[in-house]
Design goal:
The structure holds two protein chains of two kinds. Chain A is an alpha/beta fold. Helices cover 39% and strands 21% of the residues of chain A. By secondary structure, chain B is α/β, with parallel strands linked by helices. The radius of gyration of chain B is 26 Å and the shape is elongated. Chain B has five helices and five strands. The chains are: A alpha/beta, B alpha/beta.
């Protein structure tokens, strides 16, 4: 039996400032495509059409325009930054296509032509800040890259922290890609804040974490650091000493002890080498392709409207656990987790929500005053949706 | 002050502070259709051009929130904000610019005229309100003078406060001057000024 072929656009920057993440995501997409194509569970195959916008913002628009006009794709998996996604939205809306977006982002968007598979802000920054207030400190020093992710994450942080009576001790921003971090590290060592909240991305973050670690060791200090974006391949880039001990909020860690994840990681390592690591965005890209394949199977067609309907509320037991699209806002129900980075480029998960949490891209269910309460008790009051929490060993 | 209609946009000058290569031609073309002239400014350039500007069309996403310099900060013209990112952190930054109207990106040819009319009307109302406010502030400042003039007349002519004020008000009307100005003259001359013609 010959299976029908469905063209699929993959738009990832294999070059440019965030090439490392682009390559991880593309590898994961291609792995999912191969699995779908080899599986008897699907009566179709994907033909992947790859485009590399090189991290150049307007190039995302032309890449998608080309995929839609030339390759006739109905579905595109890709983008990483919000700036790139906002380039693509007009064209997928105008031509009634679907963009499957893997990366977490800062929220405040909800397009009918985007399926947001990455975490919404209620999945990432909110549980992290609650944990910080309950277990670490109410005063925090912020350092981040000067762009929308930092601005918005810090705003949410500030609202919750100040509602709880805490203080933002400083907010230091570096231009994207900037690696001159010494002045910030010096200030941190001098002021000894009880916690550092890091929203730097890419090379800026790696250089900062190494410099802060060295300076802390010299000064005999141990300052807790928190992140909403750190992932396993980055721990490897940061190095064995400086990458340990960062408290990180994410929907996915390679170390999740679910059977779907153990099998997924084994397949990944068989394909990419035993010393390679899966990242949250890589896993999420895999989930994008799988959610799409399952929706096409359910709809019996790759037609965008039919696929969107079929994807809604359709549960998939993914490596990160059960996940499904909330048709109210096209974002995903998923399970927030907190972990501490450990030796061997791994994270040890120490908290996860009891069940997948409803996505809240506009944080309209967040009450900063009650969000500042305890994570595993009164914190529930901050969510209209019941948020049963459990501690994991 | 002549009140120009917000609907007549021909001949007005717009400053475009935009970066997006696809949106710039849309705005430029539409402004020319409307008979407006245009100056274009790179958002990363911190120097405002030395031309009279009637409206600023500013791509809000093109300037970092934490930047020290906004290229349009010195120009007194209504701002039309072009919005792509609806995060509260970005919107808070935008509110500080007091936008007169806005458009959501991606832009189309439709919508810009409405945004211009709303912006011009808003600017007109703001300037009228500012003038009215200034007048009220002058009157508040002059209240001390009026009170002093009332006291003086009460003492000099053994009048009640109400009668003294009525006298000032009626005299001011007769002389076609303001209560405040007449009060200043009463204090300066030590009594009700003796004149019959209109005060300048």
């Amino acid at each position: 039996m010959t299976k029908s072929s469905i063209p699929l656009g993959l738009v990832f920057s294999r070059s440019g400032p965030y090439a490392m993440m682009g390559r991880e995501m593309e590898k994961s997409a291609l792995m999912a495509v191969d699995e779908v194509n080899q599986s008897d569970e699907f009566d179709f195959t994907f033909t992947a059409h790859l485009r590399d916008p090189g991290g150049i913002v307007p190039a995302y628009h032309s890449a998608c325009d080309d995929l839609i006009r030339q390759e006739r794709v109905g579905h595109i998996v890709g983008c990483y930054t919000s700036a790139s996604r906002k380039q693509v939205i007009p064209i997928v809306e105008r031509t009634e296509r679907l963009l499957w977006h893997p990366a977490r982002y800062e929220g405040f968007e909800s397009s009918d032509n985007v399926i947001y598979v990455g975490a919404a802000p209620n999945h990432t920054v909110v549980p992290l800040v609650r944990h910080m207030l309950e277990h670490i400190a109410s005063d925090v020093f912020c350092v981040g890259s000067n762009y929308v992710w930092t601005w918005e994450t810090n705003r949410v942080l500030r609202e919750i922290v100040t509602s709880a009576g805490g203080r933002i001790l400083a907010e230091r921003l570096l231009e994207l890609g900037e690696t001159a971090v010494d002045h910030i590290v010096k200030e941190i060592i001098e002021r000894k804040p009880p916690a550092v909240f890091n929203t730097l991305v890419g090379e800026s973050s790696y250089v900062f974490m190494r410099a802060l670690h060295e300076a802390s060791v010299r000064a005999g200090l141990s300052i807790p650091t928190l992140s909403c974006s750190l992932c396993e391949p980055e721990l490897k880039l940061i190095g064995p000493a400086a990458s340990v001990g960062c408290i990180t909020s994410s929907a996915y860690f390679e170390s999740i002890e679910e059977k779907e994840n153990r099998a997924f990681v084994a397949r990944w390592k068989a394909r990419h080498g035993t010393d390679s690591h899966v990242s949250v965005d890589g896993q999420s890209t895999y989930v994008c392709v799988m959610l799409l394949a399952r929706a096409i199977r359910r709809a019996g067609s790759a037609d965008v409207a039919a696929v969107r309907r079929a994807a809604a509320n359709h549960r998939y037991d993914s490596p990160q656990g059960p996940i499904w699209v909330d048709p109210d806002n096209n974002h995903c129900f998923l399970t927030p987790r907190l972990a501490r980075s450990a030796p061997g480029c791994q994270f040890r998960v120490f908290w996860e929500a009891h069940a997948p949490e409803r996505p809240d891209p506009y944080l309209s269910n967040l009450d900063p005053a009650s969000a500042g309460q305890k994570l595993d008790k009164g914190g529930d009051a901050a969510m209209k949706q019941p948020n049963h929490l459990r501690l994991v060993k | 002050m002549t009140r120009s209609s917000p609907f007549s946009v021909r001949g007005r000058h717009a400053l475009m502070v935009m970066k997006d290569e696809r949106e710039i031609p849309i705005v430029r073309r539409q402004l020319h259709r409307l008979g407006m002239s245009v100056t274009e400014l790179d958002p990363e350039q911190a120097i405002a051009p030395d031309v009279p500007v009637d409206v600023i069309i500013l791509d809000a996403d093109s300037i970092p929130i934490k930047s020290d310099t906004a290229p349009t900060s010195g120009i007194n013209a209504p701002v039309i904000a072009l919005i792509g990112t609806e995060t509260p952190s970005r919107l808070k930054w935008l509110l500080d610019l007091r936008p007169a109207s806005f458009l959501i990106k991606p832009l189309r040819s439709a919508g810009l005229y409405t945004a211009l009319v709303v912006a011009f009307d808003c600017a007109q109302r703001r300037s009228e309100e500012a003038a009215y406010l200034e007048k009220l502030e002058d009157r508040v400042r002059a209240r001390r003078l009026v009170f002093a003039a009332v006291l003086q007349l009460m003492r000099a002519h053994a009048l009640s406060e109400e009668d003294a004020f009525t006298l000032i008000r009626q005299t001011a009307m007769r002389h076609r001057t303001t209560i405040e100005q007449l009060s200043a003259e009463i204090i300066a001359t030590g009594g009700m000024p003796n004149r019959s013609s209109r005060t300048a």
